[in-house]
Amino acid sequence: MKRILATTALTASLVMPAFAQDAAAPEATATPEAGTEMAAGGFIQSADPQDVMASDFIGKRVYAMSEEMEYGDEGVAEADAAWEDIGEVSDVILARTGEVEGVIVDIGGFLGIGEKPVALTMDSLNLVADADAPGEYFVTVNSSREALDQAPAFEFTEPAPMEQAEATDGSVATPLEETPGEEVDMAEGEDVTADPMAADPNNTEEMTEMAEAGDNAADEAEAEVTEELAEGEAAVEEAGDEAAQEMAEAGDAVEEAGDEAAQEMAEAGDAVEEAGDEATQEMAEAGDAVEEAGDEAAQEMAEAPAESGSMEEFTRDGYSTVMVTELSSEDLTGLSVYDPNDNRVGEISEVLISSDGVVTDAVIDVGGFLGIGEKPVAISFSGISLQKQAEGDDLRAYVNTTEEQLKSFPEYEDG
């Protein structure tokens, strides 16, 4: 059950209508929010219609407003033209007291690539009611896109350990305290000292024996170390003699290897000269092959269909140009494609993205009937103009190519 009712902390900061920011935030109390029915035992039986569910709040698009605006309780029917979509809510930061400390918004990027998490405080957000959908709302922030792009990225850290829990009587469990040097005789119930010297502080005989044993052990250890040092020096001297002998033998081997290497280099020189002659012959033959291939390529290029012309300056009445970076893959997939005369020539079936996350080409399905017999062709987005209706939601793609010309393009093969 992923649906979470945030009535104590999240609702206190986000509950609608919190659209007007003039009212001061109420102090946090243990009393449930207005409209929330609290059943016996601390359970919430039902919520106020204006309460905000965390599962709905996470994933909401966030719009930046360069200037502060007031919309009142009636809200707006759709996102204001002055707003800029800067990302979506990805998480909510809760204190262990239950209060909402902030909201994490994923800003920037394209198609989920290159996004930066930025944490915003609750008082920087506005919830503007959706006039067409009771209970729905738009999330806005009074800031510019540039300021949000330069904001520091939120760093996720491991949560701090919970404080030691108290017992039901309010006490905290602690280790048992011990008294050093003292034991309790469970049978007699008497205290017995753990220090043997305390029973006989004048036990000088035992102390003398312990001192003599320490001196003997030190003498034996010193004798062993001296003997080991002498043996180590002899081993080092022997190893030095063996190393000198090995170095002399290695010198003879190096001299012999040098003579063999000189012989091999002389033989290799002859082989290189012979290989050079062969390479010269092969390069001459390859030159002839390249020239022939160039002629064939020129012929194929002449016969190949022309690419779609540039649509950089294309405009359509009642529409405005939209950059591809402003749209998602869901917006582009299935989008109808038209020629400059508004004749439908196909539809976009796939968007191609480079390894560094840049949108490069669109795959357009051309021809066919009811999805049967269509031919996929790939066209660079530099040859596509995306037009969005100024007074509506209609979105179209235009190419400077007819349907017949598109059919003559090479068929796109995935992979």
Provide the fold topology.
Blueprint: H1 10-14, E1 37-39, E2 43-46, H2 54-57, E3 61-64, E4 84-94, E5 100-107, E6 116-120, E7 125-129, E8 137-141, H3 145-149, E9 182-184, E10 191-193, H4 196-199, H5 204-303, E11 319-321, H6 329-332, E12 336-338, E13 344-353, E14 359-366, E15 375-380, E16 384-389, E17 395-399, H7 403-407
Parallel strand pairs: 3-8, 12-17
Antiparallel strand pairs: 1-2, 3-4, 4-5, 5-6, 7-8, 9-10, 11-16, 12-13, 13-14, 14-15, 16-17
Fraction in helix: 25-40%
| Oligomeric state | single chain
Q: Output the number of helix runs.
A: 7
**N-to-C order of helices and strands:** HEEHEEEEEEHEEHHEHEEEEEEH
Number of strands: 17
What would you call the shape? Answer: flat
The largest sheet has its strands arranged as: 11-16-17-12-13-14-15
What fold name goes in the CATH topology slot of the domain at 10-149? SH3 type barrels
The CATH architecture classification of the domain at 10-149 is: Roll
- Report the CATH C-level class of the domain at 10-149: Mainly Beta
- Assigned CATH superfamily of the domain at 10-149: PRC-barrel domain
Biggest beta sheet attributes: 7 strands, mixed
Distance between the termini: 40 Å
Task: Give average pLDDT, whole number.
Answer: 76
Rg calculated over all Cα atoms: 42 Å
β content, as a range? 15-25%
Category from helices, strands and their pairing: alpha+beta
